[in-house]
Amino acid sequence: MTRRLILMRHAKSSWDDPTLPDRDRPLNTRGIRSARALGKWLAEKEYLPDTVLCSPATRTRETFEGLKLGVLPVKYPDALYHASTGVILDTLHQHGAGKCVLLLTHNPGCADFADRIVTSPHDHDAFFDYPTGATLVVDLPVESWEDAAFHSGEVVDFIVPRELTD
């Protein structure tokens, strides 16, 4: 059996209020537009998750809400806030459910995880930078999310919001 992972970095956040703690920064206008475009792209491509694992930060929550994917089971594990690659994998092992998981998190862990989860990286120029809103769709040859392992996934698709909004 194959499980599908959609790995997304949050959309562009606002720095308008320098007094806000990092965890509380919202999306800016471009980020809101990007989240909507990414949601439309996911729906058009039929990359629809069964469950969502989302960092509890405001910008990741707002990115998920902006995707407008409907009502889905969502968990907000504290561990995903600026998680390392190993923590992201552990979180997927512990909380992954269904055939397709959308995982929303932050760099640098998100970029490193994207590179390590696949057998070979996507040839997109932005793959290693993993800019805001970057989204990887990868198939993992596992029966259970607990079996997900580094260097096992096959890239299905990769996109950055600028390709959808510019």
From TrEMBL:
Binding site for substrate: 59
InterPro entries the UniProt entry points to: His_Pase_superF_clade-1 (IPR013078), His_PPase_superfam (IPR029033)
Pfam families: His_Phos_1
Database matches in SUPFAM superfamilies: Phosphoglycerate mutase-like
Origin: domain of life: Bacteria
The protein's name: Histidine phosphatase family protein
Organism for this UniProt entry: Aquicoccus porphyridii
Phylogenetic classification of the source organism: Bacteria, Pseudomonadati, Pseudomonadota, Alphaproteobacteria, Rhodobacterales
